[in-house]
Structures are given as C-alpha cells and as structure tokens.
Design a protein that fits this description.
alpha+beta, 8 strands
C-alpha cells in the first residue's frame, strides 16, 4: 500500500520534532547536572575553636566535584588586615577540612577568601568568622611547695649550727688553763733558782748557824786562854 506524499512528509516532520525535543532535554539534563556539581562559595564554611589550649580556625569544603580551592585567612583589626595563612583544600560530599593554628583573641574578626581555577570562584565566605567571647583555657602552672614547708624540713639543722658556737665557747673558756700551767711552770723555775718564798727561811737558818759557830769559836779561845 503506498503512502501519499503529503502524509509521509507530515510523519517525517513529527519524528524530527520528537528527536529534537529529546536532544534538547538531554542537553538540559546534562547542563543541570554539571551546574549542580560545580564548586560554589556556599559549599564553604568556617569556624573558630580550641584544640586543648591552642586556638584554631577550621574551614570545611563540601564541594562534591572535588575542585581544588585555595583558602586564605585574614585577621581584621582597626581597618587593617593581616594574613594568617593559606592552604589548598579538595572538597568532598562529606566535607574536607583545613585547619589554621591561630592564637585568636576573644571577639576577633577573620575574613576567609576562597579561590578556584575552575568554575571561577574568587570570593569571601559570607560573614567570615567571629571568635568566641572567651579565649582558650591555658594550662595551670605546676604548684610549688608552700614556703612554710621549707623551714620545717630544714629545722633540725638549726640546733646543730647553734651547738657549734657553744662548743667553741667552752673551748675558749677552758683556754686560760694552759696560762695557769705556764705560770706554775714559771714558779717552779723560780724555786729551782732560789727565788721562791723559802729563801728567807734558809737565810735565817744560815745566819743562826754562823752565830752558833762564832760562839763555839769564842768559847774555845776563852778556854784556851785560861789554861795558859
């Protein structure tokens, strides 16, 4: 059965239109999927926290496309900025993080900038980061012994030290004894040389003996004269 030329042309036109719609739908779907997976600034978040007694600023990238992004942190103070550091992060659906060690002060403000070579992302995270009102806790210093404990431990040494002067004092008090001995030695030497207190007694005895001897001589002379 032959198909009229007019009907054939109408069928061909409809088939072409259907194919065109299908191609357009495919292109739109692919474009939408690519747009959904593209890196954008809304997938980046930042927060200030503490790790022990250290302050840190953490940036999280939840870009499922895995596009490498350069994250730079700036401290804002009195209208000026100071760069804290810069790191590269490659996002994941669960979220990849980079950490900046920063001894932040309470209520400080930081600007977080994100830049990618793909998808032309080059902007700041909305709102940046404001640190908590309380700084990170610092470790307490090691407690030292109280001053009262030190004297009690060294108290036994005090009597020993005080005993030394008393011993020396007793020695100094006993020191004059040799001087007495020296004087006695001097007295004995004087006695040996005849300069002691017995010299007068010996002189008296000698004088008495001389007188007695003289008397005997006188008596003998007188007796001898009588006989003549």
């Amino acid at each position: 059965m032959s198909v009229p030329p007019s009907l054939s042309s109408r069928i061909s036109g409809r088939a072409g239109r259907i194919a065109g719609v299908a191609c357009a739908a495919t292109v739109l779907a692919v474009g939408a999927a690519g747009t959904a997976s593209a890196c954008n600034i809304s997938e980046f978040t930042a927060a200030a926290s503490c790790t022990g007694d250290k302050g840190v600023i953490t940036v999280t990238d939840k870009d499922s496309s895995g596009t490498p992004a350069t994250v730079t942190v700036f401290l804002q103070s009195n209208g000026s900025e100071k760069e804290i550091g810069s790191q590269v992060v490659k996002g994941t659906r669960e979220g990849a993080t980079v950490t900046f060690e920063e001894n932040w002060a309470p209520n400080a403000t930081y600007r977080i900038h994100v830049k990618t070579d793909k998808y032309n992302v080059d902007e700041d995270i909305k709102g940046g980061v404001t640190t908590p009102a309380t700084a990170c806790a610092t470790e307490k210093p090691t407690e030292k012994p109280t001053p009262s404990a030190t004297p009690s431990s060294s108290a036994p040494s005090t009597p020993a030290e005080s005993a030394t002067p008393s011993a020396s004092a007793s020695t100094s008090e006993a020191a004059p004894a040799p001087a007495n001995s020296a004087s006695r030695a001097g007295d004995s030497n004087l006695a040996e040389t005849g300069a002691s207190s017995n010299t007068g007694l010996f002189a008296g005895i000698a004088a008495a003996l001389v007188v007695a001897g003289g008397g005997v001589v006188f008596a003998l002379r007188k007796r001898g004269g009588a006989k003549a």
